[in-house]
Write a structure and sequence with these properties.
Layout lengths: L2 H29 L5 H26 L9
Helix pairs in contact: 1-2
Length: 71
């Protein structure tokens, strides 16, 4: 897996996470508690965040990426 594809996948995850965060804010302001769209958007954001963390841990375990050492 080349470096630009890895970067693109991570950036795509982050964009979708931010999109769902913005959607949750929008639905919270527009719906005023009348629907569950805010909860659904924030639930998707949390699920995507967990999936991204697990993907990074798996990629490190498989050797696709390497964490930088500390100071």
């Amino acid at each position: 897996m080349n470096d630009s594809l890895k970067t693109l996948v991570i950036i795509a995850f982050l964009i979708v996470i931010l999109w769902n965060l913005g959607a949750g804010l929008y639905y919270m302001l527009v719906d005023k508690g009348e629907s569950k769209r805010t909860v659904n958007a924030l639930t998707r954001r949390i699920a995507l965040s967990i999936a991204l963390i697990l993907l990074v841990v798996l990629a490190n375990y498989m050797g696709w990426i390497k964490f930088h050492g500390g100071p």
